[in-house]
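Format notes (please read before filing issues)

Several people have asked whether sequences and structure tokens are stored in separate files. They are not. Every record keeps both together, in the order shown below: the sequence lines, then the token lines. Line labels are part of the format and must not be stripped during preprocessing.
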Amino acid sequence: MKITLTKEDIDLIGKALITHRWKIEDTEGQNNEFDHCASLADRLAYNHNGGVLTLNSPNEE
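Then the structure lines:
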């Protein structure tokens, strides 16, 4: 399945990741999930024109 995301959609996802990252840091410290959230938020921050998210079914992995 493919989902088209606007720049605003991607910005909102990035903000949610940063908020989740702060929550993890407050409750668990800087762990793997903290680092993963930061990395993904950083990668999304470079997208300026929107994009397409492709979701693979479990059988396609």
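For reference, the curators noted about this record: Residues 21 and 27 are 10 Å apart (CA to CA). The chain is about 60% helix and 15% strand.
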